[in-house]
Every structure is written in C-alpha cells, then in structure tokens.
Design goal:
Elements: H1 4-22, H2 31-56, H3 61-110
Length: about 120
C-alpha cells in the first residue's frame, strides 16, 4: 500500500504534463498533432486512474477526504480536455474528408468521368 506522501508526489508528477498539454492551444493543430496530444492525454489518464485507485485503498478516511475534491477536479479537467480535443479532431477529419471529396470530384471532372454542374 502506498503512503499518502508517495501518492501526492505521483499526483504532482501527473499534473505537470497535464498542465503542459492543457495550456497548449489546440485550434491550429493538424490531425496528426491532435491525435498525438490525445494519445498523451490517454497515457496521463491511465496513470491517474491507477493513482486514484491507490488513494481509494487508503485506510485512513480523513486523509482521503482531504484529497478527494482535488482528485475529482483533476478527473474533470482530464475529461474536459479530452472532449475538447476529440471535438477538434472530429472537425479536422470532417474538413479533410470534405477537401478530399472536392479534390476527387475535380479530378473526375478533369478526366471526363463526371460532368460539371
């Protein structure tokens, strides 16, 4: 069983990369960059889940109550950032699909397989 100090240290080690990721503006990232950010966030989320579980296993209820609200806030921040990233990724892929579709249509028209409307 981990001590509360060890878990607090591990929690701090999770917060640093999470803060770095969440302070990065996502709006102008490419699809590949967004996927990389979301992959990193997934890794952070998995590590945080393990730390959160270890906190739940602490026998001293008073010690856990001190950090429960902090853990919930971190969990919310991770979820919010993940949703924002996934929405941007969806928009990015939809725009790329539209662009690709327009390119294909132009090529079909150019080679005479499709008539211009």
């Amino acid at each position: 069983m981990s001590s509360i100090k060890t878990l607090n240290r591990k929690r701090g080690n999770i917060l640093a990369p999470l803060t770095k990721l969440s302070s990065k503006p996502l709006d102008n990232l490419s699809e590949l960059e967004l996927r990389t950010v979301l992959d990193s966030l997934h890794d952070i989320k998995e590590k945080f889940k393990d730390i959160k579980q270890a906190y739940f296993e602490i026998d001293n209820n008073n010690e856990f109550k001190d950090v429960e609200s902090i853990l919930n806030k971190i969990d919310e921040d991770i979820q919010d950032f993940q949703v924002r990233g996934k929405l941007l990724l969806y928009k990015c892929t939809e725009v790329n699909k539209f662009k690709n579709n327009k390119i294909v249509q132009s090529m079909l028209i150019m080679f005479g397989f499709l008539k211009f409307r």
